[in-house]
Amino acid sequence: MRFPIYLLLTVISVGLSGSVKAQGIFDLGTITQAISKGNDAQAAQQQAGITTPQKVADISAFNFTPSLELRKSNMSKFIAGMKQLNPEAGAQMEQGLAGIDVMNEMQKTVTPLGLNVNNLADAYVIYFMNAWTGANGITDTPTAAQVAGTKDMVYASFGSSADLAKLSNDDKQNTAEAFILQAVLFDLFAQAAASEPKVKAKVESDIRAGAKTMGIDVDQYAMTPNGLVRKTAPQKK
Predict the structure, then answer these.
(1) H helix or E strand, kind and range, residue 40
(2) Which is more confidently placed, 45 or 235?
(3) Residue burial 110-148, b: 16+ Cβ < 10 Å; e: rest
(4) What is the structure's pLDDT at 184?
(5) Angle at 10 (CA atoms; ends 9, 12), nearest 5 degrees
(6) How far apart are CA 212 and CA 202, in angstroms?
(7) Predicted confidence (pLDDT) at residue 168 exceeds the cutoff of 50
(8) pTM, to two decimals
(9) Which CA distances in Å does 112 have to 106, 147, 182, 211?
(10) Is 206:17 a contact under the CB 8 Å cutoff?
(11) What is the C-alpha to C-alpha distance for residues 6 and 130, in angstroms, rounded to an integer?
């Protein structure tokens, strides 16, 4: 999902390589393990011949009521982490994002696609799709059909994890906003790198590596007209 292009000014003038690796800013180890278990369960179903994912009956279980105080804290933590990774890029990003509510801006972008930034599963959809497109050098916004199909897959995966449904309101917000901030970073760097051939491959590699730390191997998925799907595993002879 494309974030407002004017924010590219925060990263275009600084070195791109390395700063995209901001996964360590937020500690999501336990939660990403739970998501990975859901993804693995879904993959097992596919290999068993169950190709139609079962939609989550009540996706509202992943809704949360956002706290503005917590949102500001998450943003401050994100900027501080960026400054540690790349002081110049972090400072420019802080200046470029001053006075901007990133979550509200992202909501404007994703509302036409049927996504809600105040829903953990939808935030993961945003992250997942931006990770895949960024790692593959694609800067076009996915179609509504592609988003809808990816939502079905993610909803089924989340529905396979009882741990995720039990998260507190604050935990859901922290995790969702971590996903979205990282997705924004992926998008900004992918867009900037599109016109910088010398660093494009490095940025794509960094996005791919970053996604793996969140339990996503983007190379195991393909984009179809109906969204991201896991590639069929080769049959053992």
Answers:
(1) helix 29-47
(2) 45
(3) beebebbbbbbbbbbbbbbbbbbbbbbebeebbeeebbb
(4) 85
(5) 60
(6) 15
(7) yes
(8) 0.82
(9) 11, 10, 21, 25
(10) yes
(11) 18
